[in-house]
Here is the input.
Amino acid sequence: MKGSRLIFWLFLAPVLCWLLLLIVLPHMDLLIMSFRTENGFSESVWTLQNYKNFFTEPIYWLTFVRTALYSIITTGLTLVIGLPVAFYIAKIARHKLQGTLSLLLLLPFWVSELVRIYGWMILLRESGVLNFFMLKLGVIHKPIEMLYNDATMIMGLVYTSMLFMVVPLISVMESLDDSLIEAAYDLGASKLVIWKDIIIPHCKPGITSGCIVVFMLALGNYLTPNLMGGKNSLWFTEQIYNQFIASFNWNQGSAFGFLLLLLSSLIIWVGLKLSRQNLGEVAS
Amino acid sequence: MKKAIVLAALMLFAVAGTAQAGETLKLLTWKGYAPKALMDKFEKETGIKVEATYSNNEEMIAKLRATRGAGFDLAQPSQDRISSVQEKFKIYQPMDYSKIDSKLFIPSMLEAVKKNTLVAGKSHAVPFCWGTSGLIVNSAKAPGVDSYKALLDTKYKGRVSYRVKRPTLIAMGFALGYDPFALYKDPAAYQAMLDKIESELIKAKPVVKNYWANGDALLESMRSGEVFVAMAWDNGGWKLHTENPAIDFVAPKEGALGWIDTFAIPAKAENLDAAYKWINFIMKPENAGYFTSQEKAPTASQGANKYVDPEVAANFERSFPQAVIDNIKWYPPVPTKLESMEGRTLDRVKASN
Here is the structure.
C-alpha cells in the first residue's frame, strides 16, 4: 500500500513541479507585484493604485470593454460558422471522408499563427493578390485597402480560433442519436425546429466549452489585432505588453494581467449563468 | 516520503544542470547585427559558437530585468537606454576596458559612449554602430518632403506610416518647435509637450495608413507604393534606394535622430572571455566593414571605411553632407520616469478614434 503511494507521488512529481514552478510561483510573484508601486523616493511600497489606475483612466477600461466586446462577437461568429461545419463532418459526410475533413481543418494549424496572419495580409493588402485579380477582372478600378480595419481583424480572429470551436462540436454531435433527428423529420418538424429543439440542446456542453476556449483565445490574442488591426486597434494584451516592455512598469502590467483574468472569468461566469450551466458539466 | 520527493526533484535538476554544450557566446542583439558569415568566421578562429537572440531596446531591457541580468553574455542596447536602466535595475556590469583593444575604435565615439553610460563612476558600454532615424520618402509620389511635419500633412492622406514608439514623439517634438532633449530634466514641461504632440497625432490619424511594427513590413509597403512618407531608419531607406531610385532616406530639416548601439555586458554573464573576444573580433576593420556593407549601418570601428562597398559609402555622401551631420540630434540618456509618461501618450494615440 505504502509503496504504491510512493510510486503515485513519484509519477505526479514532475507535474506538480511544473505547476508549482511555472504556474503558481510566477503568478504569486505577479500578484505581489501588482500591489506594489514606487513612491517619490524610488522605494517600493504597498498600494492599490495600480488597480485604481485602471478604473480612473478611461483609455484602460475602454480598451478592455472594446477587447471583450470584440471577443464576444468573434465567439458568436465562430459558433455560427462552426455549427454547420461540425454537423456536416459528424453526421452528413461519409465515414471515410470524416477523417480527411477533420485533417483539412487541422492542416492550417501546422504553420505558426504568424505565418497564417502574413498569408492573409498578402491576400488582402492594397497591392495584394485579391486586389490584383479584381483589378484585372475589372470589378474595381482602384485598389481597395482591405487590411487595417476592425472587420478584417475579427475575420482573422474567427479564422485563428475556428478549429477550437469545431472539434468539441464534432465530438458532441457524434454522440447524438441519428434516429432522433429522423423521427422529428418524419413527424414533420422543420429544419429550424430540429436545430432549435434537438441538436442545439444536445450540443450545449460542446457549444459552451468551444465558446469558452474561443473567447479566451480571442481575448488573449496579441498578434492578430496588432498586425491586421487598424490605427485604433489597441487590444488589451497589447496594453499589458506596453506596460511591461515600453514603460518598464511591471507593477501596472501585472495589475492589468490580473484584471484581465478576473474580468474574463466574470464574463464566462455570466455566460454560464445565462445558459443555466455550470463549469463541472461542461468540463466532463 | 517527503524526503523522497525532494530527492527526486533534486535529481531532476542535477541532470538538467549537467547537460551543457561546447563553448558558446549568448548574444542578445538586433536583427542583422551578427551576420552569419561573421559568426562562422568567429567560430573558426576561436572555436566559440555564437547564439544570437534578436530583440529590440525595450525587450532587451525586459529580458535582462526578468533574469536580473542572467541568460546572456553580451547585449547590444542603445547608449541612451543604459545608464538610467542600470541605476534602477542593475542588469549590467561595468566594462573592463583593459580587455578591449581601444585602437579599434574611433576615439571620439568611444569617449562619448563611456561618458553617456557612466553609473556610479564606472562606464558600462563600448560603441558598436550608429545611424539615424528620419524620413523615407517616395519622391515620385511625394516630392519635396523635408520635414517631420509631412507625417501630419493631409496632402498624403492614407499614405503615411510611422511607429507608435518614442522616436516618433521626439521627432514630433522637434517638428512642433520644442527641444525634447532640453526638457528631459523638467517632467512638467515635458508632459506639456507630450500633450501637445498627442493632440496633433490624434488629429492627424486619417493621414496614417498604419502604424508599422515590423521593419520588413514597412519596407514592403514602401516598395509596393502603398506608403509615400514614413518615419524609419536610414539603412531601410538606402535598401529601398537600390531597388527604386525614387525612394530614399531624407534627413529632415529638424535634424535626423542619431542613435549609437553599443556592447554592454549583462550582470550575470557567464562567458565573459567570449564576450570580449567577440567585441574585439567584430570591431576589426575588415569585419566591421563587412557588417556595414551588409547592413548599411556605419560602425565605430577605426579604419573600416576601406572595407565598405563603394555603393554603400555613396549613401552617406548623398544623404549626409556635413551640414546634415552637424544637425543630427543625438539621443542623450533617457530618464526612466519619462518612459512611463511617454507610454501613456502612446497608448492614448493608438487607442483613440
